[in-house]
Amino acid sequence: MSLRTPLGRQLGLGSAHEGVHHWILQRATAVALVLLTIWFVLSIVRLPLADHAAITAWIAHGVNPVLLILLLVAAAWHSKLGVQVVIEDYVHGKHAKIALLLVSSFIHVLIAATAVLAVLRIAMRSVG
Amino acid sequence: MRPRPMSPHASVYRFQYTMIGSLTHRMTGVGMSVGLLVLVAWLAAAAGGADAYAGTTAVLSSLVFKVLLALWLLAFCYHLFNGIRHLAWDLIYGFERREARRSFRMVVAAALILFAALAWLLFCRGGAAP
Fold it and tell me: What does the alpha-carbon distance between residue B119 and residue B88 come to, in Å, rounded to a whole number?
């Protein structure tokens, strides 16, 4: 028998005042990243990394820009959720916690936006 | 409202070596979050043109960054396999103490093997080295 009220169970909110949304997103991005990171790492270790033309050609080739954008957005998202948990667990001052969570969120959005723009610029240039 | 009990209560547990696996998962995760900044800087440099890219790869092929790249690669290998172990737990699989200890050893072994293979491809076959 559960001691939780029906309303509490329906809302799905635990002591962190947040439901299963964070938990599910962390797992969903994890599953995506298993596939995307294996593809990326196996590709990148075989490329001539000092060769700018070869690297940009690979980034722009076929489905690579799509997979790269998915990888970087999923990675930034998964990272944001993971760092959030670490901050929530180890930073105990309320103000410091909120400040760090904000900084982390901003940096992660910045990372995702910068990455998507970079991949698009490389992919578009090769088209035009 | 009175303060509620907060997780994690790390200090109330007797030490078991599988704890190292859990802690390492967090540390490798945070480490790769920092690595993500470098990955995006590298992509932005590639988008910025050949000159910007040459400058960035010069920095990335310095000894400090080669060591960091190796550590990030190792962190990736561990976090990947231990993450799969976590996903198996989420499906309520492998929770028994014997299974959890065995899967931890398997994760460490698989991570080291994958790291050796990737590091060989990256550093010995001429990827990151200019």
Answer: 27
Count Cβ atoms below 10 Å from residue A57 Cβ, excluding itself.
Answer: 14
Could you tell me if B4 lies within 8 Å of chain A, comparing CB atoms? Answer: yes
In 3-state terms chain A splits into helix, strand, coil percentages (rounded to 5) of 80, 0, 20
Of the candidates A27, A37, A79, the beta carbon closest to that of B87 is on A27
CB contact at 8 A, B100 and B18: yes
Residues in chain A: 128
With a CB cutoff of 8 Å and minimum separation 6, the contacts of B111 are: B74, B77, B78, B80, B81, B82
pLDDT digits (tens, 9 = 90+) for B66-117: 999 999 999 999 999 999 999 999 998 888 889 999 999 999 999 999 999 9
Q: With respect to residue B34, please indicate whether it lies within any of the assigned structural domains.
A: no
Asked whether residue B95 is domain-assigned, the answer is: yes
As for how many domains chain B has, the answer is 1
Residue with tokens 């190796």: B70
The ranges assigned to domains in chain A are 6-127
Tokens coding A8: 């509490």
Q: Which residues of A27-46 are buried (b: 16+ CB within 10 A; e: fewer)?
A: bebbebbeebbeebbeebbe
B27 has a chain A CB within 8 A of its CB = no
pTM of the model: 0.86
Pick from B6, B36, B127: CB nearest A49: B127
Looking at domain A6-127, does it have CATH number 3.40.50.1010? Answer: no
Contact status of B122 with chain A (Cβ, < 8 Å): yes
Structural domain contains residue B39? no
